[in-house]
Amino acid sequence: MKNNLVNGTGVTAPVISRRNFLGAAAATGAAGIVPASLGSLTAQGTAMKAAQLVLPVATKDVAPFKIQVPQEALDDLKLRLASTRWPERETVRDWSQGVPLQKAQPLIAYWRDKYDWHRFEARLNAFPQYRTHIDGLGIHFMHVRSPHRNALPIILTHGWPGSVVEFMEIIGPLSDPTGYGGSAEDAFHVVVPSLPGFAFSDKPVETGWDVNRIARAWATLMQLLGYDRWVAQGGDWGAGVTHALALQRPPGLIAAHVNWQFVFPEKLPDNPTPAERRAIDRASWFANDQSGYFREHATRPQTIGYPLADSAAGQALWIYEKFQAWTDNHGNPEDALAVDAMLDNISLYWFTDTAASSARIYWENTRAGFGGLSRGRIELPMAASVFPHEIFCPPKAWAEALWPNLFYWNELDKGGHFAAFEQPKLFTEELRKAFRSRRG
Amino acid sequence: MHMKDDSKNRTTEPVPLSSRRQFIRMAAAAGGGGILSAGVQTGALGRATKAAQVVLPATTKDVTPFKVHVPQIALDDLKRRLANTRWPNKEPVSDWSQGVPLAKAKALGEYWRTHYDWHRVEGTLNALPQFRTRIDGLGIHFIHVRSKYQNALPILLTHGWPGSIIEFLQVIGPLVDPIAHGGKADEAFDVVIPSLPGFGFSDKPTEVGWGLPRIANAWAVLMARLGYSHYVAQGGDWGAGVTSWMAKQRVSGLTAVHLNLPILFPPPPPRPGGYTAAEQPALAQLGKYGSDGSAYGLIQGTRPQTLGYGLADSPVGQAMWIYEKFQAWSDNKGDPAEAISVDHMLDDISLYWLTNTASSSARLYFESWGKDFGRMPIDLPVAVSIFKGDFFTPPKVWGDQTYSKLFYWTEVPKGGHFAALEQPGLFVAELRKSFAQVR
């Protein structure tokens, strides 16, 4: 196993083995390597600030990282949840005004009384995690190397309101297929970064972190990790980043897979086929009924950040609504995702206080008129899995029109927007099948 | 000031007027025919967290005196929450383009916690005759001040979002008692200022249907119940929506309206040659509003409940949700305090917070935004004052094309969206001048 470390000049430093790397890290202070002990989160001094997490300073070294949310932050959360002030109940009998009060209250009670952050923290910390400084920003990522020699490196990018949590179930099957009913030829080296402003990546303090810049950072990251032949995958904003990567074609990127395809034709067909009609209707439903959060994030991420940073219930329900709206369910998000899994993700947003910083990805990408529905022609070999409960599902013909090197297309019969999170087995199988032809 | 109050029995017929003194005595007698004791005001529920909630007295079709009394425990709870605010990180821009800047937000939160005095505005409100009455199943709160002048013109003033009755507190005196405020006796108004359903001390609707047309009808019932058979109505923002719907529905007794934000979206279709140069600025304003300024409306219109969880639970969240609009829509050069004093902004914000009406007020967008809030031809006499600092200042030609009896159109150089709050003197002058023509 190799880790490339970059020194302060931006020039690639000599490759060292992972064992060497960990050993050096443990030795605390070996030139340029941040001690692993600094990788834990620490709490600041005063009572109120105790509830805030402070990330260790990242350098251009790849520094091991562990999560440890201080007890003060856990206590503060419980206190806030216990003193939640509720609005009156909605005036409708469904989710059309948002999360119904009778669904909201049990979720918050469960978060306060039953949910166990330490279980999740231990699970996160069981993955090798790192932070490194790229283009001025500390980037957090999981990095699991496969024991199989010919594993294909893959970078998986989450979206909003997702996080690295979405991919936790598939990291094992991807990196260690033989341990999960697969074959060694399907192995991946897995890199799962947190987007800038999300979770344990730094929050940008300047503008400019749109999907194009993120894509360039990801290419740098893959290079830093020593990968010279790799693939990329993403959904939601992760699909935005992955489309951007595909357009940029950085050295080493050989193909990409997206579970949300931005391939709307520039001019919509006059006589749409039923599949085209469905995609158009769903996109327009999204624009009209579904995009309030999108417009608010895109125009006033700071203002919406105030209630979400201050109210744990507010943050939880801002996200929970999307688990209901976008997963493959019969009305309740719990049909598609376990409550604990949803709260893992929600807690990650809460403890890192990233409501505003994550919302800013919309501001960044809409300023320059990000169309969203189409990223234009892409020459890179592309693969796509269409999950039926995605926000909109473009027909294959649209992808063929824009992606001359479309090499894999599959329409599944279950799963939604949070595909890896909802259907980890199907998702894993999709990646195995899609990239089988790209190996070697 | 000699003031009269109309009270109502359980029918919808007007009852004889009684003097205010008499009225209050009746109320104090606790149980006088159909009049709720004035002592039944806002109270606190039992449990610790619920104790911080303001509870409104039940209403009947009687017009029942109402006083505001926010329990101390609610004020304490507010301070505790403000002291425990958890903030987001600072915006990466140096202006308001991502919303309220963190430094401004922290300063406002700190002032609210350490300097702001709710009891001051509570005293101001309670010095005014306030009532609640049940209309169409809902308890409606309103201020009702009669002028001592015999020929006073009754006027109904309707606020919008994120406004409230607070917007009108400075104009009540000059309207009802013009002599004491530099005016003439024949400029006097009897003033009625209701809180919209789901706002302030009006009840929160528990069922769908409380859109503009229904509110407009409820306001007509209110004016009839108060004994007014000829009156005028005024509004901006949602208040302009309600007022326009009253005019459109030709409710009984309404003789003319005044709008300070006429809902004059571009009349379709554009004439050959397209819109004129004079129309371009308003088109640009609508374009900017659509692309950059309307997300609050879209989220309130589609997910008022989800948004409400954060705003109901975080006073700073509620404050910034509103403060942003004071900055964006008032006549200022960057700081909203140039247009509206910080205390007045916090009066309005506190009213939303203490009544926990973030969701219920947002629901008006769910009910009526993009449905009832649109350009509507009106055949009743219409007066318009355009305050040039508002975010939308349509040209007169659109008014001419939409209102068949447009009898007054003035562009006021100062003041913005919250005209009565920002420029009470100019606002009063506009109402005096415009309605002089319909008395």
Structural summary, described in words:
The complex is a heterodimer of chains A (about 450) and B (about 450). Chain A has helices spanning about 20-25, 70-80, 100-115, 115-125, 170-175, 210-225, 235-250, 275-290, 290-300, 300-310, 310-325, 340-350, 355-365, 395-400, 420, 425-435; strands at about 1-5, 10-15, 40-45, 55, 65, 130-135, 135-145, 150-155, 190-195, 230-235, 255-260, 380-385, 405-410. Chain A has about 450 residues and is of the alpha/beta class. Chain A has one domain (about 45-440): Alpha/Beta hydrolase fold, catalytic domain (Rossmann fold, 3-Layer(aba) Sandwich). The longest helix of chain A has 17 residues, at about 275-290. Chain A is globular. With about 450 residues, chain B is an alpha/beta fold. Among the domains of chain B are: about 120-270 and about 375-435, Alpha/Beta hydrolase fold, catalytic domain (Rossmann fold, 3-Layer(aba) Sandwich); about 285-370, no CATH class. Chain B is globular and about 55 Å long. In chain B, strand 4 and strand 5 (about 140-145) form a beta hairpin. At the A-B interface, helix 2, helix 9, helix 10, helix 11 and helix 13 of A face helix 9, helix 10, helix 11 and helix 13 of B.
